[in-house]
Amino acid sequence: MSLRRFIAGAVCPECRAMDRLVIERDGDVQRRRCVACGYVDELPSGAPVEPSTRLTRRPGDPAEVTPVRLIDPPRKPES
Q: Please, are residues 32 and 43 in contact by the beta-carbon 8 Å criterion?
């Protein structure tokens, strides 16, 4: 049995029609299909892979801690 749900605000990568994409789930397979033009592609299963950035830590990397010193700005004398 196939479960279907529409994706609000999604734009088809083929025909650029808005609000025409549906996700179809059949067992472990998920497909994205456009009801306007018939475009179909399979979505990867499992958790999405996080892109590597300068803030991404790899497992086993030591956490570097740098203390921050807050300095109050000089106050003007009251007259």
A: yes
Residue 70 inside a domain? The answer is no
* Inside any domain, residue 13: yes
Six-digit token pair at 4? 């279907």
pLDDT per position as a tens digit, 4-23? 899 899 999 999 999 999 99
DSSP 8-state class, residue 28: T
HSE, CB side, 13 Å, CA atoms: give it for residue 49.
5
- Residue 22 falls inside a structural domain: yes
Q: What whole-number distance in Å separates Cα of residue 78 and Cα of residue 44?
A: 66
Cβ–Cβ < 8 Å for 3, 24: yes
Domain containing 27 equals 3-43
Q: What is the DSSP letter of 46?
A: S
Place of tokens 């998920």: 30
| Model pTM score | 0.52
